[in-house]
Amino acid sequence: MTTGTDLLELSPVMPVVVIDDVDDAVPTARALLAGGIRVIELTLRTPVALAAIERVATEVPGIVIGAGTVTSAGQAKQAADAGAKFLVTPGCTDTVLEAAFATGLPFLPGAGTVSEAMRLAERGLTALKFFPAEASGGVDYLKSVAGPLPSLRFCPTGGITAATAPAYLALPNVGCIGGSWLTPKKSLAAKDFATVESLAAEAAKLGA
Ligand code: 3PG
């Protein structure tokens, strides 16, 4: 896997994962993989996130582990050092963009408007995270930009559910979607990884 576009092809749903207890990282990744999901965006939103990425990178080689919620240059480097195979940002500043390029990792920069998407395309980035998808126009937005921006492919994320996922996945400019519903906070807190596996299995079927 070498480009952002390749990332969009790994699974129909890219789980957006928040790990509060570092010991949950490996069982969560294994449950997602057992359900048929081959990629994780593990968000840098908790103090244990980098350690969690490191554990998954080492112990679950079958899943492609990326760092999400990268909002600073320092985080981009830290995530790469921890073993992340790709980076995801919710939006994009020049500083974060340069730091992400410097890691040499593929990354999905966030864009919520046509101008943001055009700026990223100017830098050669044609696989983008469309965030926050539902709040920014959802399926209608993506349909509208397909004409003027035909080279761009998106991973819409933010407010998408198992019920709304198929409408996104049916769009030609959507490679995969992102969502946190595969790893509910409650299930992780209860160490209920069977539920994660079953939600992953349903999500994996969305691409069929
Ligand atoms: C993200 O960072 O991509 C979002 O928090 C995920 O959005 P969701 O929780 O609505 O799926």
UniProtKB/TrEMBL annotation:
**Catalytic EC class:** lyase
- Keywords, in A-Z order: Carbohydrate metabolism, Lyase, Schiff base
A Pfam family annotated for this chain is Aldolase
Family recorded in the similarity comment: Belongs to the KHG/KDPG aldolase family.
Q: Subunit composition?
A: Homotrimer.
User: What InterPro entries does this protein's entry cite?
Assistant: Aldlse_KDPG_KHG, Aldolase_TIM, KDPG/KHG_AS_1, KDPG/KHG_AS_2
**Which CDD domains does this entry report, sorted A to Z?**
KDPG_aldolase
Tell me its EC number(s), please: 4.1.2.14
Under which name does UniProt file this protein?
Answer: 2-dehydro-3-deoxy-phosphogluconate aldolase
Q: Name the chemical reaction catalysed here.
A: 2-dehydro-3-deoxy-6-phospho-D-gluconate = D-glyceraldehyde 3-phosphate + pyruvate
Q: Which NCBIfam families match?
A: eda, PRK05718.1
- Source organism of this protein record: Amycolatopsis saalfeldensis
Q: Name one GO molecular function term.
A: 2-dehydro-3-deoxy-phosphogluconate aldolase activity
Pathway the protein contributes to = Carbohydrate acid metabolism; 2-dehydro-3-deoxy-D-gluconate degradation; D-glyceraldehyde 3-phosphate and pyruvate from 2-dehydro-3-deoxy-D-gluconate: step 2/2
Q: Which SUPFAM superfamilies does UniProt cross-reference here?
A: Aldolase
